[in-house]
Write a structure and sequence with these properties.
It is a single chain. This protein has a domain of 131 residues. 50% of the residues lie in helices and 12% in strands. It is built from 8 helices and 8 strands; from the N terminus they run E-E-E-E-H-E-E-E-E-H-H-H-H-H-H-H. Strand 1 and strand 2 form a beta hairpin. The longest helix is centred in the C-terminal third of the chain and has 30 residues. The chain is elongated and about 75 Å long. Bound molecules: zinc ion (2 copies). One zinc ion binds next to strand 4.
């Protein structure tokens, strides 16, 4: 369901059920109208014929820019990892732009969400965790991967996101142990190739840099530390 208000008759309608037009409004927003109301305006010479009429039976919207699209358009493709969300190819080059967007796509895949309007409910919950516990988007994603994919716990209606605060630290310890094991192997290899005196000079900063790069689960600690 996607309820919008018609620009002309001012009535609310579901653009998933009735033919509509989409009018760009500012940078990222759109206004909507019944196709019939718009065509009536055009026929009376009060509007130019410039907008596409979208048939909700076959149209969808770009996952990233929310512009109406048809899945069979040449410049449209599936969102990677999702089987029922489409995007402009160009939008796919620019997204996901950050860890928040990565988490959004991951949640749709993990929970099998059918409708995008369900997503904000989860994102509000995530904002609360970030505010209350200092979690990060990537930390939450890794915690969900740990619980549902590594520990193979069933995804059920009751838990979903609410498992995150309960196992965040457990997941962190898992990734830390994993990272430490990888790091131990790397140091052994580096010693074979780098002369002793150079190693002494670069050791401390090098380690820090590698740590930040390889182990993003610690992001929130670094962010807190910078404040
Ligand atoms: Zn209307
Ligand atoms: Zn787009």
């Amino acid at each position: 369901m996607a309820t919008v208000t018609c620009k002309y008759c001012k009535k609310k309608f579901d653009r998933d059920k009735e033919p509509y037009i989409q009018i760009p409004w500012g940078e990222k927003a759109f206004r909507y109208a019944h196709a019939a109301c718009y065509l009536d305006e055009v026929n009376h010479g009060r509007e130019k014929q410039q907008y596409t009429v979208w048939d909700p039976a076959i149209a969808t919207t770009c996952f990233w820019c929310h512009q109406a699209i048809y899945p069979n358009q040449a410049d449209v493709e599936l969102v990677p990892q999702l089987t029922d969300r489409y995007m402009h190819k160009n939008c796919g080059l620019a997204h996901p732009a950050d860890e928040k967007e990565e988490l959004m796509v991951f949640l749709i895949k993990l929970f099998g969400l059918k409708e995008d309007y369900i997503l904000p409910k989860y994102m509000i919950q995530i904002q609360e965790y970030i505010k209350k516990y200092g979690f990060s988007y990537s930390g939450i994603k890794k915690t969900l991967i740990y619980w549902y994919e590594i520990k193979k716990q069933p995804v059920n209606e009751e838990f979903r996101l609410s498992i995150v605060p309960r196992i965040y630290n457990e997941a962190r310890r898992y990734y830390e142990a994993l990272w430490n094991a990888q790091q131990a192997n790397q140091v052994k290899n580096i010693k074979d190739f780098i002369p002793q005196d150079i190693e002494v000079n670069i050791k401390a900063p090098q380690r820090q840099l590698q740590k930040r790069k390889l182990f993003t689960f610690l992001d929130e600690e670094e962010i807190n530390g910078d404040k």
